[in-house]
Amino acid sequence: MTDSVKPVALITGAGRRFGFELAKALLEEGYRIFAHYNTSRDGIDELESRGAIGVQADLTNHQAVLALIATVKEQTNRLDLMVNNASVFVQNPAVDDDPKLLAAMFEVHVQAPYLLITQLREQLETSDNALVVNITDIYTDSPSTDYIAYCAAKAGLANLTLSFAKQLAPKVRVNGIQPGPILFLPEHDNEHKNSVLAQTPLKVEGGLQPMIQTVRFLRDNPFITGEFIKVDGGRALNL
């Protein structure tokens, strides 16, 4: 399959966790991948060794986002899939102590996806099955008081999802995925894990495959736009 006929995907935050595993899965399916990362290359070297195009950009920097967009435009006239996955996840005290971190919440979760979608609209509309997937959170519907800025920013991304689903139809579909306890962070201790799982009806840590399967489902079902799918083991039922 030549580059001209390969489906093309842009994934933000592709260096680790979900973004990394999704990029690997799509590379195995024959996609041409633009793998965005910020400061940590983590899995980017591996993705590049598999054929991905690593693209560095600080999503809190307006000019850096525009440079990312320009790089994509220079190398492809078509974009089949965009996954806005990059995230900043910290509790209230960190945000309260650092105004730049407060701004970053909205720059990464709202401003950058807005720019990527609007500025790459032509590339998306060139595809026969263009899909944007925005990774929001189950807490956009029932916010946590420990992560007020994060929840507000993710709610903004959810609203963008609905607005763009209206505006870009019928050429581009826009949907969201709301993850729950799919993969705990390294700093989460057993007490935290057990507490979360006790409040999750399916009682397990989901792993990343259910998220990847949901992206595939949204891609392969051409009659879904403006929707959110919870991938959370039922966790949102108990929020």
Written description of the protein model:
One of its GO terms (molecular function) is oxidoreductase activity. This is Dihydromonapterin reductase. Belongs to the short-chain dehydrogenases/reductases (SDR) family. Keywords: Oxidoreductase. By secondary structure, the protein is of the alpha/beta class. It has a single domain (8-232), classed as 3-Layer(aba) Sandwich (Rossmann fold). Helix content is 45%, strand content 15%. It contains nine helices and seven strands; from the N terminus they run E-H-E-H-E-H-E-H-H-H-E-H-E-H-H-E. The protein has helices at 17-28, 44-49, 62-75, 92-97, 99-119, 121-126, 148-168, 190-198, 209-220, and strands at residues 8-11, 32-37, 53-56, 81-84, 130-135, 172-179, 228-231. A seven-stranded parallel beta sheet has the order 3-2-1-4-5-6-7, sandwiched between helices. Strand 2, helix 2 (44-49) and strand 3 (53-56) form a beta-alpha-beta unit. Helix 3 (62-75) packs parallel to helix 5 (99-119) and helix 5 (99-119) packs parallel to helix 7. The chain is globular. The mean pLDDT is 96.
Give a short synopsis of this structure.
It is built from 9 helices and 7 strands.
How would you summarize the topology of this molecule?
Layout: E1 8-11, H1 17-28, E2 32-37, H2 44-49, E3 53-56, H3 62-75, E4 81-84, H4 92-97, H5 99-119, H6 121-126, E5 130-135, H7 148-168, E6 172-179, H8 190-198, H9 209-220, E7 228-231
Parallel strand pairs: 1-2, 1-4, 2-3, 4-5, 5-6, 6-7
Helix pairs in contact: 3-5, 5-7
- Supply the CATH architecture: 3-Layer(aba) Sandwich
Mean pLDDT over all positions: 96
Report the C-alpha radius of gyration, rounded: 17 Å
Strand adjacency order, main sheet: 3-2-1-4-5-6-7
- In CATH, the homologous superfamily goes by the name NAD(P)-binding Rossmann-like Domain
Helix content: 40-55%
> What is the total domain count?
1
Task: Figure out the total of helices.
Answer: 9
Pfam family, one: adh_short
GO molecular function: oxidoreductase activity
EC number: 1.5.1.-
Protein name: Dihydromonapterin reductase
